[in-house]
Design brief:
The chain contains 6 helices and 25 strands. It has about 400 residues and is mostly beta strands. Among the domains are: about 160 residues, Alpha-Beta Complex (Sulfite Oxidase, Chain A, domain 2), CATH 3.90.420; about 110 residues, Immunoglobulin-like, CATH 2.60.40.650. The strands form 6 sheets. Strands 6-5-14-9-10 form a 5-stranded mixed beta sheet. It is globular and about 70 Å long. The N terminus is likely disordered. It binds ligand MTE and molybdenum atom. The ligand Nc1nc2c(c(=O)[nH]1)N[C@H]1C(S)=C(S)[C@@H](COP(=O)(O)O)O[C@H]1N2 binds next to strand 4.
Length: about 400
Amino acid sequence: MAEYSKVTEALLGRRRWLRQVSMASLGSLVPLGCQREAPAPTAESLELNEMRFPGKIPMRVINSRPPCLETPWRYFRSDFTPNEAFYVRWHLQMLPTEVDPRRWRLTVGGEVKQPLRLSLRELREFEPVTIAAVNQCSGNSRALADPRVPGAQWENGAMGNARWTGVPLETLLERAGIKAGAVEVTFRGLDRGGIQSVPDFVRSLKVELALDSDILVAYAMNGEPLPMLNGFPARLVVPGWYATWWIKSLSEITVVDKPFTGFWMDKAYRIPTTPNAVETPDNLATETVPISRMNVRSFFTFPDQGTVVTRHQPCSLEGFAFDGGSGIRLVELSADSGKTWQAAKLGTDHGNYSFRRWHHDWTPTPGRHVLLVRATSNKGEQQPLEPGWNHAGYMRNVVEQLALTVS
Ligand SMILES: Nc1nc2c(c(=O)[nH]1)N[C@H]1C(S)=C(S)[C@@H](COP(=O)(O)O)O[C@H]1N2
Ligand SMILES: [Mo]
């Protein structure tokens, strides 16, 4: 499925293509015991709330102006999320809809000895680095918050995993030469608020953090140019950190000698300092910090919710896990509400910032079952059995459930 292409989709027709995709990705793994209750969805036409944006398959629209589009769940059956199905999130009305790659320039300025003004071609002349990393919106799964919270009502599809190729930010900053006394580096894209009351989407990193060698200025995603809606021609990739840092259509990197202040740092994208950023509606946290590293999560991708499974035959359960960069140590399943857990087998390791697939053969007895999946990261962090809550709906990572009927 990583080899998925638009051409394939057009040739096969969507319906057949979907069938091929599930057959190709699950292949011989589909066991006799896991039957599908209903045939796979036949989305010849747009489903409710779906729209087709440039460079994208039909996707569920969370907001249309500016576009916020959610990745359909079936795409999480592969380790890498196809560019065409990768979720999209913009904040400002005036976003770039076309960029001439011959005229686009990335500037590195401010408190530097040698300001840079790089073309896309010059950026590509640096030694390229590729890293597999999850891009997840801070508000992924917000729609599931209880009590409800305002903001884009994402279900679980505001995330994706891709191979990002580009130049380490550190290389660019070293080429420019950071002056003594510099404290932060700010990042700005081509999008604009348009009116004075809407501040531009600018974010800043402390100099020490900006020099982390894993941060990239990426111009390719899964081996192709970035889709326009995912930040063509280049974006920041901050592996392990929530996507709010991953500035798209990047145009200005500015080194500053005073801490940067701005709406998107001081007011938005902040979390309580409490463990796992938890607060309660009647006792909101008074102390907040900018959101940064992702917490650990895991999901089911097969079979689908509500599938009818045959008794006493092995059913191969499948899903994936990830965290904020320490990597996945363990994925466990429970069929008894968390009393006992069994370790799943982990799939290919694409690096600590990537999705990590898991699978587990389960031989069920008749009845209705609710399975739980729980991941533990290499740094020992484990998903909670109860969801945490905060006023912005950030960082949800409760243990996920899969309800199945065994007949
Ligand atoms: N220039 C710019 N970059 C941006 C944003 C934005 O509004 N403008 N939104 C950020 C947020 S909050 C998210 S979740 C990610 C979404 O990345 P994607 O659209 O490629 O999935 O982009 C980030 N980078
Ligand atoms: Mo986001």
